Amino acid sequence: MSDTMDPMATDVDQQELAQQLLAQAKEQGIDLVGPGGLLNRLTKNVLETALEAEMDEHLGYEKHDVSGRGSGNSRNGTRTKTVLTEIGPVEIDVPRDTGSTFDPQIVRKRQRRLTGVDEIVLSLSAKGLTTGEIAAHFAEVFGAGVSKDTISRITEKVIGEMTEWQNRPLDRVYPVMFIDAIHVKVRDGQVTNRPVYVAIGVSVNGERDILGLWAGDGGEGAKFWLSVLTEIKNRGVEDVCITVCDGLKGLPEAINTVWERAVVQTCIVHLIRNTFRYAARQFWDEMSRDLRPVYTAPSEAAAKDRFVEFSGKWGKQYPAITRLWENAWSEFVPFLDYDVEIRRVICSTNAIESVNARYRRAVRARGHFPTEQAALKCLYLATRALDPTGKGRARWATRWKPALNAFAIAFDGRIN
After folding, report:
1. Which of 121, 124, 211, 315 has CA atoms 20 to 30 A from the CA of 151?
2. Helix, coil or strand: residue 77
3. Residue 83 · residue 112 · CB < 8 Å
4. How far apart are CA 307 and CA 170, in angstroms?
5. Residue 117 pLDDT more than 90?
6. Torsions phi, psi of 86, nearest 5?
7. Which residues on adjacent β-strands are paired with residue 243?
């Protein structure tokens, strides 16, 4: 007979045990949750059993084992301690030794929260809740008091993690990189709008890779962008095929300085959205239908003809729209040279808008931030929530293999 444990049998045993515990709790009138509830008691028993096992290992013998007599150190009763867990406060008895050398790991000395609680705090903070709101949440849901200072200390722990994330090695090549800005309100004497720039790379595996976050003051130029892009290059990015951005001063020049073969592409989604800013809402649907032949044209010449038709219809009423497209034309037309699969990746709102939506939700919930660092921390927590591994990655949400083939052909020898 094999000694290997049957997983199905184990599942059945666990189910039977759970059913027995539930039946016993029901007979005794014990609630499932809450102080003194079944989950509370089980958590207490598991933690105390683990602590006793740690004490056995520390002393070198089990409780009541005669081999421990005269060993020089022995058990010395317990002390009561309350720890906050994901199910609320749990009171446990922590064993002590006469030599006071026992250093438990499952619940460390002076530890008042299990790590799962810290993750809950970070998750709530990533959603934009303030320290006061998080404290109120714990009081309401867990019946436990967690001070604002404690919550601040928990979130401050991620500063080091954020620094490590911002400096981590990156992939050698990204077929596409998006650069966009999120605006946050920072109180520096007075409340001002500050941009925080986010760079998102699409990896050769079709993953969105959030490369980093950089705070600006709104007056950035080529020098700033050269610094940011050089930092990305120094982290291992040797090549970027297409960089999608939107009218950021000095950025196109910096891109081609760092990656001379990169194509700078204006963001089609932003270009269309900016078009509607100049038009009355009642015309948006009609204007959208008239614009579609421009950015779906098979060639630049065809796109130019369709744009002449568009301008003939709307230019007199909205001359700013014509000027907007004419100014962006040189950075718009590279888009027309690519296969439809590449166009879909470049034009997709999923690439950066889903991330930006998370950022905006967190920023909007907070209102304004006391410092630039606090704003960056909030945005990093939102990034962290997208990918619990902390690597800043999230799966690409569209067909990727056809696009990868198109990139490999269009940028021959660069996509490996």
Report:
1. 211
2. strand
3. yes
4. 40
5. no
6. -65, -15
7. 177, 264
